[in-house]
Amino acid sequence: MRNFIILCRLHTEQVLHAAFSGLKTSKKDPKAITAVLILAVFSVLMSALYGFLFAGMMTQSGIELFYFPTMLLLSLFFGFLFSFMGAKDVLFSGRDLDFLLSMPVSPSLVMLSRMAALYLENLLFVGLWMLPANAAAQFFSIAPAPALWLSFLPVMLFFPLLPAFFAALCGFLFAWTQARQHKNALLGSLLTMLLLCVILFFCLQADRLAELLFTNRDGLLHILDTYLFPLRLVSDGICGSFPALTGGLFLCALPYAAFAALLSRYYKRILSALQARTLRHDFRLSALQQSSPFCALLKSELYRLTRSSLYLTNTCFGIVFLTGITFFLLFSRERLDMLLPLIGGPRLLTPMLFLAAMFFLSTVYPSCISISLDGKALWLLKEAPLPAPVPFGAKACLNLVLTWPTCLVSLLLPGLAGIIPLSDSFFLLLPGLSVTAFWAVSGLLLNLVFPKTDCPNESAVIKNSASAVLGIFGNMLSVLLIAGIWALCTFVLSVPLPALCLILFFSFSGLTFLCWHTLLTWGTKRFAQID
Question: Which pTM was predicted?
Answer without folding.
Answer: 0.65
